[in-house]
């Protein structure tokens, strides 16, 4: 059953927690009911169903008797994060603890970008209620608690994040190599595996709702350069050995470029996560329906410009004011580049981003659908 109408105002003690899609009232409410039927106990809602789940909304429905459907005036909804659930929360059976919404045809849409977060487990329970003439409520028992998980950012949300990231990119600088720093043990292991750096599962760092977190495999590379030398920085938070590969091996006309994330870790500088996927590969297929695709020759972060004249080399540029994290979705062989010791005297371990959490208060890199 589809809801129609405008967003209605909701009451929850002294605060409003969620927006519900306000639907037309059921025309059968109170029609033809006797006083005895009105005073009869309400049955407990059962068969709770959650559907159409997004990163910041869902629809909920449940089974009621025809008599309860006819006389219910309000629904009470309790929604909480799974990890913070308190089974003794419902102390007053006749007092709403979370949310009061006027009874509407089910399923009912629940949304509220300041409350629901992407990829987060929630618990929900419901009551039905009849508002009486004196303002008190006759209520049912609480339903069973149902658990569900919100989804990833949709394409429209990533586009909002992309628009924010464009403002922090800065001017484009030339570069010639992608590089990857690791400790000696890592490269020893790679050599034991035939010299192939295999894609690893993306961790949970950055925006909680990014579709690639914990789902896309790849090999991370950097390409940022120092302003004064135009070369990769001398220090690294990831290790003292650096694998360098000519830019053209990873960035060329046979590559699809995608935007995946924009975040910071309580610092002034920001990270932009990009995905490079060879056209037609599994990584390309994964990203095509989940991430905004960027034009290789014209975007604020990472560009490839084809040679304009015979004998010229392609031009590769990166954003100057954002730290780029480039995820290449296919294996890379050590023979395609070289491994050397970096010349810096320290490794800046505090700057690593493994499983780093995004600053939820930053106005530069957050959008309106959670962190």
UniProtKB/TrEMBL annotation:
GO terms for cellular component: cytoplasm. The keyword Glycoprotein applies. It comes from Salarias fasciatus (Jewelled blenny). Keywords: Glycoprotein. Residues 149-371 form the Phytanoyl-CoA hydroxylase-interacting protein-like C-terminal domain. Gene3D superfamilies: Immunoglobulins. InterPro entries: FN3_sf (IPR036116), Ig-like_fold (IPR013783), PHYHIP/PHYHIPL (IPR042868), PHYIP/PHIPL_C (IPR045545). The gene is LOC115397922. It holds the Pfam family PHYHIP_C. SUPFAM superfamilies: Fibronectin type III. It comes from the Eukaryota. This is Phytanoyl-CoA hydroxylase-interacting protein-like.
């Amino acid at each position: 059953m589809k809801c129609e109408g405008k967003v209605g105002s909701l009451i929850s003690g002294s605060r409003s927690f969620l927006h519900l899609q306000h639907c037309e009232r059921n025309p059968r409410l109170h029609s033809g009911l006797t006083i005895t039927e009105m005073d009869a106990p309400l049955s407990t809602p059962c068969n709770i169903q959650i559907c159409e789940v997004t990163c910041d909304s869902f629809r909920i429905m449940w089974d009621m008797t025809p008599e309860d459907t006819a006389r219910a005036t309000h629904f009470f909804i309790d929604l909480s994060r799974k990890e913070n659930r308190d089974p003794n929360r419902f102390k007053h059976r006749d007092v709403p603890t979370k949310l009061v919404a006027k009874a509407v045809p089910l399923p009912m849409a629940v949304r509220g970008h300041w409350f629901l977060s992407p990829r987060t487990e929630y618990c929900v329970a419901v009551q039905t209620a009849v508002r009486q003439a004196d303002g008190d409520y006759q209520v049912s028992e609480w339903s069973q608690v149902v658990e569900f998980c919100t989804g990833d950012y949709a394409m429209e949300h990533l586009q909002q994040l992309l628009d924010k990231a464009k403002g922090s990119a800065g001017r484009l600088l030339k570069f010639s190599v992608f590089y990857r720093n690791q400790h000696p043990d890592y490269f020893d292991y790679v050599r034991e595996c035939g010299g192939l750096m295999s894609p690893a599962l993306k961790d949970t760092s950055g925006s909680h709702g990014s579709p690639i977190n914990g789902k896309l495999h790849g090999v991370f590379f950097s390409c940022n350069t120092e302003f004064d030398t135009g070369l990769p920085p001398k220090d690294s938070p990831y290790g003292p050995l650096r694998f360098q590969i000519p830019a053209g091996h990873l960035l060329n006309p046979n590559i699809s470029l995608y935007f995946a994330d924009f975040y910071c870790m309580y610092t002034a500088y920001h990270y932009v996560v990009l995905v490079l996927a060879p056209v037609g590969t599994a990584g390309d297929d994964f990203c095509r329906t989940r991430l905004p695709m960027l034009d290789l020759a014209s975007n604020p972060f990472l560009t490839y410009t084809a040679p304009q004249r015979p004998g010229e080399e392609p031009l590769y540029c990166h954003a100057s004011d954002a730290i780029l994290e480039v995820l290449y979705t296919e294996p890379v062989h050590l023979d395609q580049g070289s491994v050397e010791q970096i010349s810096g005297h320290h490794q800046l371990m505090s700057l690593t981003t493994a499983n780093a959490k995004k600053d939820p208060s930053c106005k530069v890199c957050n959008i309106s659908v959670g962190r």
